[in-house]
Design a protein that fits this description.
It contains 14 helices and no strands. The protein is globular and about 50 Å long. The chain has one domain. The two termini are about 25 Å apart. It has helices at about 5-15, 25-35, 40-45, 50-60, 60-70, 80-105, 105-110, 110-125, 145-155, 165-175, 180-205, 205-215, 215-240, 245-265. With about 270 residues, it is mostly helical. Helices cover about 75% and strands about 0% of the residues.
Length: about 270
């Protein structure tokens, strides 16, 4: 893979992993624009998760330390247990269906990406009008059933175009969280899931060979993804404090989905 393409993809991964517009959808679109799928491209996409995972850990280091302190010193497991509960549906679905989705051309089709991106965009635009449970103060107040509901919504993020952060933020809003708290909870949930994805990839001998053969390119791509990811997390959490701000991302998704569909139909 040409270095500048790898750097652009690292930038796209870093920004769109946390801005709720679908990193997988954008990466599929960029891949189609390249006109060819580089060899072992799936390894590249999985390995640049390392940069965004590090961005999450660095940004939320104090929050992670507080959660661990609550567990070991205060024996307060509530938030940690809710995060695990939310991760279970997507984790199981990823293990059972991940390879099938990756190998099935239907899910990487631009039609699928555009429809998924547009559908979630519509939900974001209508997020204030969707049925909501009683309001919660913040993610620490989340109940176990609501945490599980967010987890089931996250399963759909396996489909390119849906967005892990997008699906969990919308589900978090329905569960009673405000947009900022829903985003923060979404990012906390991403940490164990992204860690599992990275470890699963590194277990593969083929992936390790790819990593060693492309160490320099992957290091630079992950650095770009890390810096872009830090910016994206800070931006999203600040921007979502504004009333109705989730609609902005929804309209972006709808417009992009429309452009992609027009492009596919005219191609």
């Amino acid at each position: 893979m040409v270095l500048w393409i790898a750097l652009v993809l690292g930038l796209v991964q870093g920004l769109t992993e946390f801005i709720p517009v679908s990193s997988s959808g954008h990466l599929e679109i960029f891949e189609q624009l390249l006109g060819t799928r580089p060899e072992n491209f799936h390894f590249f996409l999985e390995l640049i998760n390392i940069g965004t995972l590090l961005a999450l850990i660095i940004f939320f280091r104090k929050r992670i330390a507080k959660i661990l302190n609550d567990i070991f010193k205060k024996h307060n497991y509530k938030l940690a247990l809710n995060v695990i509960i939310t991760c279970i549906p997507a984790g199981l679905a990823g293990l059972l269906l991940g390879d099938f989705i990756e190998e099935n051309g239907f899910f990487s089709s631009l039609y699928t990406v555009a429809i998924a991106m547009g559908a979630v965009g519509i939900l974001m635009v209508l997020s204030d009008k969707l049925p909501h449970f009683s309001k919660l103060k913040n993610e620490d107040s989340l109940t176990k059933p609501r945490a599980l509901g967010i987890g089931f919504a996250q399963v759909f993020a396996l489909i390119p175009g849906v967005s892990r952060s997008g699906s969990t933020i919308v589900a978090g809003r329905v569960a009673g969280l405000n947009s900022e708290s829903a985003a923060e909870y979404s990012f906390l949930v991403s940490i164990p899931l992204m860690t599992a994805v990275c470890l699963k990839t590194l277990i593969s001998s083929s992936a390790r060979e790819y990593l060693l053969a492309n160490a320099g390119m992957l290091a630079l791509s992950n650095l770009v993804a890390f810096v872009a990811g830090l910016f994206a997390i800070k931006f999203v959490l600040k921007y979502l404090k504004r009333p109705g701000s989730l609609k902005t991302f929804g309209w972006y998704r709808i417009v992009l989905a429309s452009i992609v569909l027009i492009f596919v139909l005219l191609a």
